[in-house]
Fold Lon protease homolog.
Amino acid sequence: MQPQFPVPDPLPILTLPEPSVLFPGQLLSLHLQTPHTLKLVRAVLQDSSGSPQSPALVIGCVPLKPAALKGDNATEGDAQGSDRAAGEPGSDAAERIRPAHEQGTDDDQQRERGLQVIRLGTDKSSNAVAADKPDPSDLFEFGTLARIVRLERLSTQAGSGLIVVLSGLARFSYSPSALDPSAPFYTAAAITVHNEPSTLSLSPASAPDTTTLVAALRDSATSLVETLSTTSTLPPLVIRRLRGVLSRLSPSTAPALLDALLAALPVHPTSGLTHADKVRLLGTLDAAQRVDKGVEVLGRAEEALKLAGRIEGRVEEGQKRRQREWALLQQLMAIRQELEQLAKEEGRPSPLSIIGGGGSGAAKGAAGAPGGRRALGSPPGIGAGDDADEEDDLAELERRVAAKAFSPEAKCVAVRELKRLKKTPPQGAEHGVIRNYIDTLLSVPWTAAEATPLELSKDFVALARKKLDDDHYGLDKIKKRLLEWLAVLRLQREHQALAHETTLAAAPSSPTESAVAAPPSSTATAKDPAGTAPAPTPPFTPAYRAPILLLHGPPGTGKTSIARSLAEAMGRKFVRISLGGVRDEAEIRGHRRTYVGAMPGKIVAALRKAGVSNPVVLLDEVDKIGHASHHGDPNAALLEVLDPEQNNSFEDHYLGVPLDLSQVLFIATANSLDTIPEPLFDRMEAIELSGYVHAEKLHIARQSLLPKQQRANALSPSQLSLSDDVLLRLVTSYTREAGVRSLERALGAVCRAKAVELAESADERDAAAGGAKAYAPEVTEEDLERILGPPRWEEEDEDGGRVGVATGLAYQGSGNGGILHIETTLTPGTGTFSLTGQLGSVISESAHVALAWVKAHAFELGIAPDRDANAFDKRDVHVHFPAGAVKKDGPSAGVALVVAIVSLMRGIPPRAHTAMTGEVTLRGLVTPVGGIKEKILAAHRAGITRAILPLANKRDVETDLPAQVRAEVEFVYVRTVDEALDAAFEGGLAALAGGGGGGKAGERGHGAWDVQSHL
């Protein structure tokens, strides 16, 4: 049949996503995002001449073949037709084409059938065409010629792609087997266009006449449109358009009306219309047969819509009935309360007792509803079932409250809230609030009956020590403190067991006394002969409260992991609470129940998560809590939690009941103590975790870090090995830090590099049959530089110190120390003194004090020719601290500044591998400084073998430093600046004073500047 419009040859084929179907005379909007659809539109626009009547703007829209029609080679629109109409009882089509709620609509089943699964919703992407081109066998043999009437490009924010509006023209048929899957998009040749006839023509003799067919369509369509107007969400404009087409119904417009109705009806289980129905009617070419079968489909759709409407109306009626019942129940309760109050005031029985109800007994009623509730006027069906479920739920909740081991205060609150819950209707908002509160009370461990018992074995402490030693090397101070606490708990547990055995030995004679003398750990409650259950014996609460430990030190030293190891050694639950960035007090103490969305704080949440009353709770990063704001001060909220004298009655704002936290082992961690408020710090027992020395790092890397990285990178011990020399090189040249995190990252980089080498070696062996380069599992020092790059730190020069340069010790914060080179130079000038290197006011004052002391003792040091001469009047001194982008401050560089200036003026270098710290005064005294442990550990990691320290810091060295560091570093303790200079230079003060004398000193000083300028 010749088309009434130009059709391009070949015709571009656009596949429609399921369940989209375009009918002639209808519009369809699609969101195109996939590559093949965008290429199709781009090709159509390039071939177009710009005219709306251009043949290039006509494309073919083909739907996907539904599962019900797969395997059918012939459709009802073919020449032979079908002897039995689809949908008749017994026909194959009737067995395959079923409503959507009877078909398997699971996405996985559709993918197994080869369908493109696309969900249609309200967003733009729901109408997107399938992501990949479907197989030609999945395409329907019939489609609709359509003209592109509108094209719009979307921005990236709107979802990108194109919005195309298509106008259906006529049905067409083609051969899907002739499509080329390798083409950018499908094109079909030899298109057969099927235009609609001017009127209905009846070919089979058995078909009804035209008048009867049009009348049946009119009745079905009119009834369906009325149903859609009341039950469907179709826009009113669509309803008016359908009524307009229906008013002009005739034999010539009957097929168009059917297509309009099919396009308007959505594919949904409630509409009774399936994708197979639309595709089947699209492929029915005979207009009379299509209208005949459409009448049957429309009738089924109308019945489905009416059924959905009846169900929705029934649900709304049930909701209204329950709301009315609730209002009447509230009125009835108010009337009962008024009657009881009047009867009480007049001193007579309640009138409710006359009609079968009175007081709380009336609440039970004849129905015998448990929990003091009665289903008054419950409607049959859904309402009655809901009431029964609610009563069962309340009965179960009441049993849980009775069996829970509450504290006395919590027990009273739980019983009171349970009574309130029974009186509150389930429809009210307060019902859910009370229920959540009771569930929270039930989930919190209140008493020692829910605690984890401690082992009574004799080797418990020894096993705990072994567990801590296996997991962490070093950290002797914290291990010692934890084992002390475990030993006390162990002895206390023995005393408790002995007291319990003594109680059992004195066996009571009466049954009542036997019930009272039940073991504290027993949860069963015996009954006396009268049948009443006595109150359970309160569990034994240890008098020794858990300490509040604060582990502070640099990152990566094992503060968090040792808390976990302690919990495992004790057999207790471990919960971690991250406090970094917490700014709201309610996160610690919880929200008050008056607020919407109130919840308990982090402490109660941790106990609920652990499920026991004595877990190990880690308060991580306690030094990084936010400051006080309009949300409260979280540091102040922690005061009660971390006070051993007060946390036995901690009260969360949400619970409103005292909670015993005395058996919880709180372990806080911090990198620095500067940001912790003094009242909070005073409540904790601070234990410092210093950095590791080289030997400790080697042991940790060998025993823990290297095996961990080998497992993470799928390497066996035989495939990767590092000697102690290589590990030491890795520690000293690449990872000079207090902890071991950088060391672990460096070992991970080495393991990944060796994994690549191993994989390439295996691939080459498979490809070249033995010609691959052999894999070497041993890592050498040369491999380190190849994998990790040049060393970050080089060893100090072995040829001695440099003139005018001294090595100081600095504390860098967060538990880290470091060495600080102080450089000086001398230039001709007017005697000015310059300081550079981002210095603070304290260290600048130290530099001026050091220069003043050197000037005052210039003659004794051999700098000036006599006591009245000024050796600095024609020279400018410049002191520089390297790493100028890093701010430096603190009272600990005075000795190093004096040594650097004296070395500059005398031209004598200080001792090699010597570092010093300490502050100086104008009187020449060396005062003590802080951070000795961190400074000495950093100097030891940097290869320093000799340290000059104030005499007052000797006790810090003897008590805090590891024995290995004390053995490998020589300590010189000084009280005055003269002693410091004597220890800093070869030959001591004698070498400095031996070269004194006017011009000679000046020449030596000028020579020092000359040498320094070339360094």
About this structure: The CA atoms of residues 23 and 168 lie 6 Å apart. Confidence is low (pLDDT under 50) at residues 73-131, 355-385, 509-542, 996-1015. Residues 287-346 form the longest helix (60 residues).
